[in-house]
Amino acid sequence: MKEISAIDFNVTVPRGKCSPTEWIAVYMFPWCGQLGGCWDGGEREVDFVETTGPEGSGVFASNRGGRAKQVTWVNLTCSIRVDSGIRQHLTFTSRKITSGQGRGTYQWDIRICDASASKCDSNNQLWHAYRETGPDIFDESMMIVIDNWGINNPPQSGCRLEVTDMLITKD
Question: Which superkingdom heads the taxonomic lineage of this protein's source (predicted)?
Fold first, then answer.
């Protein structure tokens, strides 16, 4: 993680194919050289995309683990729900804090923009989904997971989460 400055990718969920409560996610956590990684019950998890946000199940959000700082993706009028579908670009940026308060942790930003973009920033973002600091456990090797758990049931037939054009930029 300490060598990564950005992760960019497109995320697509088809409109009308997913249950309103479908639980899908794209997240990362330290691999730590252990079978299954060092997820630690979500304490070491960064959610780029998750549909179990503060507005309830089926709402797109971004956060680190199950923290109250999770931020819902919204358009001009309301939260964006999984059954409405999406096609967006996501840019996650990361930088190691090397001095002052927070030294040894990471500053993270997640920005969402149109899928035609190759990078989201303050000039083209549709919304600024999340900003947080991460602990130094993230110095370890990372693993990225793409999941569709369904919710209380297997995933609905035809509901799919596509992640394409992933680009990881190193310092």
Answer: Bacteria
pLDDT at 125: 86
How many angstroms separate the CA atoms of 66 and 83, rounded? 22
Whether the per-residue pLDDT at 118 is higher than 90: the answer is yes
Kindly report the number of other CB atoms within 10 A of residue 40's CB atom: 13
SS3 assignment, position 137: helix
Angle at CA of residue 17, ends 16 and 21, nearest 5°: 90
pLDDT at 4: 87
Q: Using an 8 Å Cβ cutoff, are 171 and 8 in contact?
A: no
Per residue in 106-132, is it b (16+ CB within 10 Å) or e — as a string? bebbbbbbeeebeebeeeebbbebbeb
pLDDT given at position 65: 44
**Of 113-117, 119-123, 127-131, 155-159, the least confident:** 127-131
Q: In what order do the strands lie in the sheet with 46-53?
A: 71-72, 56-64, 46-53, 23-30, 142-150
